[in-house]
């Protein structure tokens, strides 16, 4: 079987792509070696290699709701359902944990989202005249 020029080019490109994919999938990130300096006859310029990625995952925050003696249980269950997207059974379990332990985690979010959840809960409680409190705490 003989290949024409186009078929040969396609096959070569396909093989190159496969080798590259395998390389990308298996290579462990390495620290780049020291910058290479070209000899003066090649211009003497410094070649900088791409740095290994060093971004960390963002700090996450847990929104903790606190117990008090006055906020009705039903109000807390509805708030947990509404602002923390829990079904009624889960919201009831969380509310009871707060009631018994003094506090419980309602959800884990990025810093801004956690702060928004706290604002929403406090505003809703204030509107209804309940002293319900909740706070955001960094985790780990
Ligand atoms: N302890 C409250 C009561 O007995 C109920 C309650 C539960 C209040 C959870 C706040 O975050 C809370 N009515």
Task: Please give a quick description of this structure.
The chain is of the alpha+beta class and 140 residues long. 47% of the residues lie in helices and 18% in strands.
Overview of the molecule:
With 140 residues, this protein is α+β, with helices and mostly antiparallel strands. It has a domain of 79 residues: Ribosomal Protein L30, Chain: A. The protein is 47% helix and 18% strand. It has 4 helices and 5 strands. The strands form 2 sheets. A 3-stranded antiparallel sheet has the order 4-3-5. Strands 1-2 form a two-stranded antiparallel ribbon. Strand 1 and strand 2 form a beta hairpin. Helix 2 crosses helix 3. The protein is rod-shaped. About 15% of the residues have low confidence. The protein binds L-tyrosinamide (TYC). L-tyrosinamide binds next to strand 3, helix 2 and helix 3.
Write the layout of secondary structure elements.
Elements lengths: L4 H22 L9 E2 L8 E2 L12 E7 L6 H12 L3 H14 L1 E8 H18 L4 E6 L2
Antiparallel strand pairs: 1-2, 3-4, 3-5
This protein binds L-tyrosinamide.
The site of L-tyrosinamide has 13 residues, from strand 3, helix 2 and helix 3.
């Amino acid at each position: 079987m003989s290949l024409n020029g186009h078929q040969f080019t396609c096959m070569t490109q396909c093989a190159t792509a496969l080798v590259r994919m395998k390389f990308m999938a298996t290579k462990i990130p390495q620290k780049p070696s020291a910058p290479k300096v070209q000899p003066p006859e090649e211009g003497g310029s410094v070649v900088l290699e791409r740095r290994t990625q060093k971004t960390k995952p963002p700090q996450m925050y847990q929104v903790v709701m606190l117990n008090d003696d006055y906020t009705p249980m039903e109000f807390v269950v509805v708030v947990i359902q509404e602002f923390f997207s829990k079904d009624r059974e889960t919201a009831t379990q969380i509310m009871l944990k707060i009631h018994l332990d003094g506090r419980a985690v309602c959800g884990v979010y990025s810093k801004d989202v956690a702060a928004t959840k706290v604002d929403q809960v406090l505003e809703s409680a204030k509107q209804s005249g309940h002293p319900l409190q909740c706070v955001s705490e960094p985790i780990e």
